[in-house]
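Our working data are protein records whose layout never changes between entries. Instead of coordinates, the fold is spelled out as a row of discrete tokens. Here is such a record, shown just as it appears in the course material:
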Amino acid sequence: KAVNDAGFDKTIVELAKLRVSQINNCAFCLQLHLNVSRQLGVPQEKLDLVATWHEAGIFSDKEAAALAWAETLTRLADKSVPDEAYTAVREHFSESEVVFLSTSIATINAWNRLGAAFRFAPPIPKRATAVKAA
């Protein structure tokens, strides 16, 4: 809510949440944020390629910075956050925006752990359910 109230670009936050949910193997959060991203009008090509954003060549510099930051904050078990990573994200976001982005990333990491641990069923969109029933 704070991120939304601050006027932070919702599509960038959703792309970050998608990438984190992919890394953490949380089907519930992945599907939920795919649904939200589609409602926000994120192009299908970006949704298809977020897992390989490094090579895709279709993400803006700002989106790429957010995705890199999301990966850095999600993969803390192997290493600490390098100064270069913070410097890179600050090239595209203000200090307060980095706080909002980081809080969103931390929150989705927590939800991923709950969703994966308790095997939350993914929220399948109605059109996918109708196709499945046919």
The chain has a mean pLDDT of 91. The CA atoms of residues 3 and 99 lie 9 Å apart. The chain is about 70% helix and 0% strand.
